[in-house]
Design goal:
Number of helices: 8
Low-confidence stretches: 168-175
Radius of gyration: 29 Å
Structural class: mainly alpha
Mean pLDDT: 87
Helix content: 55-70%
Largest sheet: none
Length: about 180
């Protein structure tokens, strides 16, 4: 317990000075506080050894300086990569049909939603879902059927072929039915 007490006292006595030093290096209070937090985490894990030093404050000052330098180097490397390769290509947002599906799924009871997502999006078999959910297979099948039935009126299928089932082959049979 003495280690925790001496560390707490050390922290109280040195925190402001360390943050001030790090602000001078970084020019940013938030970054300085982040670095200081990392310094004290490292100091705590080595406190028995560091507390025996003649000047433990010098250790945290040096570690803080080294961490700031490491951040500068990582930023410089990232900037070089950015300059060399350019910004990443923009990622398109979800299509309206996906947004509609997610909104409709949110309106279902949780067990039905999980069953539908695991089965249709996750590709799990009914038996696998039953094991994961700790439910009988017939219960999972019932959740799937009820969930599909509840989803149907919430979703309107816009199909360019004019087929109301959304199946370009015109076959109304769902091949993934359990």
């Amino acid at each position: 317990m003495a280690d925790a007490d001496t560390f707490a006292e050390f922290y109280r006595d040195t925190y402001r000075g360390l943050v001030a030093q790090l602000v001078a290096y970084t020019g940013d209070l938030g970054e300085a506080q982040d670095v200081a937090q990392e310094v004290y985490v490292r100091a705590w894990s080595r406190w028995r050894r560091i507390s025996a030093y003649d000047d433990p404050r010098a250790w945290i000052g040096r570690v803080g300086h080294n961490l700031v330098i490491s951040r500068w180097r990582r930023a410089r490397t990232a900037l070089a990569g950015w300059t060399r390769h350019g910004p990443p290509a923009p990622v398109p947002g979800p299509d309206p049909a996906t947004l509609d599906l997610v909104a409709a799924l949110r309106r279902l009871p949780e067990p039905q939603r999980r069953a539908l997502v695991l089965y249709h999006l996750g590709g799990f078999a009914v038996a696998e879902i039953a094991r994961m959910e700790g439910a009988p297979e017939n219960t999972v099948k019932a959740r799937l059927a009820r969930g599909r039935q509840a989803l149907a009126p919430m979703l309107t299928v816009a199909d360019p072929t004019g087929d109301p089932t959304g199946d370009p082959t015109g076959d109304p049979q769902d091949v993934r039915q359990p």
